[in-house]
Structures are given as structure tokens and as C-alpha cells.
Amino acid sequence: ATEAEEKDLVIIGGGVAGYVAAIKAGQAGLKVACIEKRGALGGTCLNVGCIPSKSLLNNSHLYHTILHDTKNRGIEVGDVKLNLEQMMKAKETSVSGLTKGIEFLFKKNNVEYIRGTGAFADEHTVAVNLIDGGETSVRGKNIIIATGSEATPFPGLSIDEKRVVTSTGAIALKEVPKKMVVIGGGIIGLEMGSVWSRLGAEVTVVEFLGQIGGPGMDAEISKMTQKILQKQGMKFKLNTKVTKGDDSGDTIKISVEAAKGGKEETLDADVVLVAIGRRPYTAGLGVENIGIETDERGRLVIDQEYRTKLPHIRVIGDCTFGPMLAHKAEEEAVAAVEFITKNYGHVNYNAIPSVMYTHPEVAWVGQTEAEVKNSGVKYNVGSFPFSANSRAKTNLDTDGIVKFIADAETDRILGIHIVGPNAGEMIAEGTLALEYGASSEDVARTSHAHPTLA
Ligand code: FAD
Ligand code: NAI
Question: Beyond the main fields, what else does the record say (predicted)?
């Protein structure tokens, strides 16, 4: 065999974590290669996650607004039709533009893009099974694992991405289902449930816990969000578990019962979306052969500098600890490369915002009220409804509130939670406030343009 070429840094995975690390390392002058098996850069986020889902959320919201919310605004429209094929094309245009943009950035920053599946041959060598046929291998002084995550399957239901789908199938349905059952009322369930509900499906969300929104959403905000989504037509079955699914007939039968035991009920569905969380993806990587550990949830174990037991191998993004968010992956990519090039790097995990892109959006940063209460800190809560905000009033879009939680003694902000129009943009200010250690008075005394939602 020929000697493998040696790089300063080899990155396995070309998702947000991997491509950001690759570009940063290229800019820092490192000799870097990034291995991606999908055939396109950008990972889950650009190809089948953040970007396509936001395209569908935006356009389905427009459609729904035009269909149901124009008359009272003085706009008469007739003959509104859904062209789902075109809506999907618009989505694909956004996706392909962005993934090609990354290829361009790779070239510009001297990143070698290796199209194939990587696996550890030894501690410094990654063997690559090339997409276009054949094999190669590449040696790294440093290696970053950024292989991301995959949907957690639901036992007993086999995913075909047509009738029983994960988010990947849910962003690509060929027609609007009459009835859709969503298993899991977290972010994916509510975002994709919203899309298909707006386009005409009857959507029922089955959630095991007593609240929707997934981990991290403040209970009061979650309750309010549920009411708003119900008003839009989505149905919810909380504290409910799916016991079995049968997809042998024309309609899929989903059996559910109260989580604490109770009467069974059967729900019919044309499409079932499985959205019960995501799990780290490390299949075929061969980490076990070189002694890298995973925890009980399959996450690659690292220290505070993203190092595995083998200090030249680091891990970032969805396949290790922390929230599975694109901007978290991105921050870690920057920090990990800085650890390699400068010996220091930093991510403030207390100030990573979360946004759910339903309408209205739900956004938060910092701790929930329950978390603050459990920590034993004395705190104050202040909240304000959009129904009393002048811009929301002019926009006839007044559902939601802003909630601040601050330390009762120091007034330092501990958490900000918003459900309301444009919450996802507004939370940037809250994140900045948290990052700078602001008090709630600091924010109150900052001039905000009138009339704005901010
Ligand atoms: P990934 O993006 O999953 O990238 C990993 C890449 O590694 C993949 O492309 C994979 O093909 C490749 N790979 C894996 N193994 C190998 C191997 N052995 N060799 C070569 N390549 C390999 N986050 C947000 O912040 N905002 C959102 O709005 C948002 N929306 C989402 C919507 C959906 C439907 C989903 C599913 C996720 C969403 N997320 C969102 C989460 C976000 O997509 C992830 O947090 C992000 O993609 C994580 O980046 P990553 O680089 O760690 O992993
Ligand atoms: P999630 O963790 O947000 O929600 C899963 C939900 O399913 C939880 O509420 C959980 O209680 C419930 N659940 C689990 N098992 C169940 C069962 N057997 N029956 C019924 N309910 C069950 O996970 P989700 O929605 O799959 O998303 C995965 C990840 O993707 C998110 O954690 C998030 O990090 C990321 N994502 C982020 C988005 C954003 O930032 N806007 C959008 C979409 C995904």
C-alpha cells in the first residue's frame, strides 16, 4: 500500500461542525482534509434539517396566512392553490445554493474535500471508502470527529420515509396527508406538524410527557404554545404513549394509551412522523478499535477541550454532549480549532439560544423557571404579553409573551423565554444580554425603537 498523505487536521463529517472546523483550520493555515459520505456538504442541517424545514415552515405559513388571514386585513384574494411540487423546488433551491456555497469556501480556504466514508485504520489514519469508487487513506496529526446524529427509531415501526417517516421523509412528502400522527411533541414534531397542518393535514401529536416542546422549554411557555397551536388546528395527546403501530393496511393504525396505564385507543394515519429525539451517529467509524469511549447514550466521551482519551482526536457537534443544535456545533468547531492552533478556546454553554420556528416562534436562552427554582436561587419573574405591544397590534399578530427571570438579589438575568412573532430574531438580544452578564434593568434602560416587537 502507498503511504497515506499526512495532514495537520483530518475532519470526519462535513456537517455544520465539520465544515466550520475545516474552513477555520484552512484560514489558520493548517493543511486540512474533510471527509463527507453524503455526496454534499452541510450535513443534516443544510441537507435535511434546519434549512429545508425552515423553507417549508416559511412558505407553508405564507400559504396559510393567505388562505385564512387576509380578509380582515383588507386583502381579497381568490383561487389560492397549493403547488406542493413548486414549494419543494423552492426548498431545494435554498438547500443546493447553500451546500454549493460551502464547496466554494472549501476551495477558497484550501480545504481538501474527500467524498467518501471514513473509518479509523489506526489512531492517526482514516481509511476512506470513496463515493466514486476505490479507497484512499489520510493521516492526521490531529483528527476531529464530527459525524453528527440520526433519528431515534421507534421500536415496532419500520421507517420507509414515505408513510412512516422521520423528519427526512417529512420534508419531502409528495402529497398532503389527510391524517398525520406525530410521535413525539418535541421541536421536530411541532415544526413539521405545523407545516403539514397548515397545508391541510389533520395532525395529532402524541407526547409521552405532560408538556410539549422537548427538553428545555419553560413550562409556562410550553402551555401557552400548546394553546396557540391548538387554536391553529393541531391536536395533542399528552401523557400518552404509543404501544404499537400497524402499517400493514391502507391506513396505519397507531395504538396509544395513557402513559400511566389506561384504556387503549387507536389512531388512524396516512403518514406517521417519528420524532422522539435524535441519537449520536458513529456507525462504522471504528472508534472502539482505537479505545475511544461512548457513554450510555452513544455520545463520544470528551474532556473540556473536546479531547477523547487520545488527545489528538477531538469530537464536536451532535455526536457528543450538549444540545443538538447547529449553532452549538458551529461554536464548538471554532473552539476546537482554536485549541489546536492556539491552545485555548471557549464556548459559553449557558448562553446558547434555542428557537422553535412555528408560528408564533418560541425562543429561549438561559435557565427555565423550574431550573432556577431547583437551583435554590431567589429570583424575580417579569412578563409582558404581545397583546399589549403596539407593533404586534398593528400586525394583528398578538399571541404570546416575553418572560424574564432574574436573580432577586443582583438582578442578573438568568433566563429569557419568548413565545411570539419573531421570537427567534429577538432572542439574539437576550443572548447578548446573558453573554454580557446584564441585569434586567440594563435591558429595560436600553432604548428600543417604537413601535417594534423588540
Ligand atoms: P451533522 O449535520 O449530522 O453532520 C454530520 C455529517 O457527517 C453528515 O453529513 C454525515 O453524512 C457525515 N458522516 C457521518 N459519518 C461519517 C463517516 N464515517 N465518514 C464520512 N462522513 C460521515 N438545529 C438548529 O440549530 N436549528 C434548526 O432550525 C434545526 N432544525 C433541524 C431540523 C431537523 C429536521 C433536524 C433533523 C435537525 C435540525 N437541527 C437544527 C439540528 C441540526 O441539524 C444539528 O444540530 C446539526 O446538523 C449538527 O451538526 P453536526 O455537524 O454535528 O452533524
Ligand atoms: P426532542 O428531544 O426535541 O423531542 C422529542 C419528544 O418526544 C420529547 O418531547 C419526548 O418526551 C417525546 N418522546 C420520546 N419518546 C417518546 C415516545 N415513545 N412516545 C411519545 N413521545 C416520546 O427531539 P426531536 O423533536 O426528535 O428533535 C431532535 C433534535 O433535533 C432536537 O433535540 C433539536 O436539538 C434538533 N432540532 C432543532 C430544531 C431547531 O433548533 N429549531 C428543529 C428540529 C430539530
Answer: The active site is a redox-active disulfide bond.
Length of the chain counted residue by residue: 454
What is the atom index within ligand 1 of the atom nearest the CA of 151?
Answer: 36
Atom of ligand 1 nearest to the CA of 148: 53
Burial of 266 (C-beta count, 10 Å sphere; 0-12/13-18/19+)? exposed
Q: Annotated binding residue at 174?
A: no
Residue 113: closest CA among 138, 92, 150, 142: 138
Any binding-site annotation on 327? yes
Side chain identity, residue 396: L
Q: What are the strands, taking DSSP E only, across 386-454?
A: 401-407, 413-420
As a whole number of Å, the CA-based R_g of the chain is 23
* Alpha carbon distances (Å) from 27 to 19, 21, 359: 12, 10, 39
Distance 39 CA to ligand 1 centre (A): 14
| 88 is annotated as contributing to ligand binding | no
169-203 pLDDT, tens digit each: 999 999 999 999 999 999 999 999 999 999 999 99
Ligand 2 centroid to Cα of residue 277, in Å, is 4
CA of 43, closest atom in ligand 1: 9
List pocket residues of ligand 1, CB cut-off 6 Å.
Answer: 12-18, 35-38, 43-45, 49-50, 53, 117-118, 146-149, 167, 188, 281, 284-285, 317-318, 324-327, 329
3-state secondary structure of 165: strand
Asked whether residue 298 is marked as a ligand-binding residue, the answer is no
Element (H, E) at 253: strand 252-258
Looking at this protein, which amino acid is placed at residue 332? E
ipTM surpasses 0.90: yes
Residue-level pLDDT at 2: 59
Distance set, CA 98 to CA 50, 333, 334 (Å): 12, 19, 20
Residue 188 Cβ contacting ligand 2 at under 6 Å:
yes
450 is catalytic: yes
318 lines ligand 2 (CB under 6 A): no
Q: Which helix (H) or strand (E) holds 60?
A: helix 50-68
Angle formed by the axes of helices 326-342 and 16-27, to 10°? 30
pLDDT at residue 1 in the model: 45
Residue 164: enclosing H or E segment and its boundaries? strand 164-165
Question: In terms of DSSP bridges, do strands 379-385 and 313-315 run parallel, antiparallel, or are they unpaired?
Answer: unpaired
SS3 category, 396? coil
Atom 7, ligand 1: which residue's CA is nearest?
13
Strands 202-206 and 235-237: parallel
Cell matching residue 150: 440520526
Helix, coil or strand: residue 192: helix
Q: Looking at the predicted structure, is the pLDDT value of residue 284 above 80?
A: yes
pLDDT band at 281 (very low <50, low <70, confident <90, very high): very high
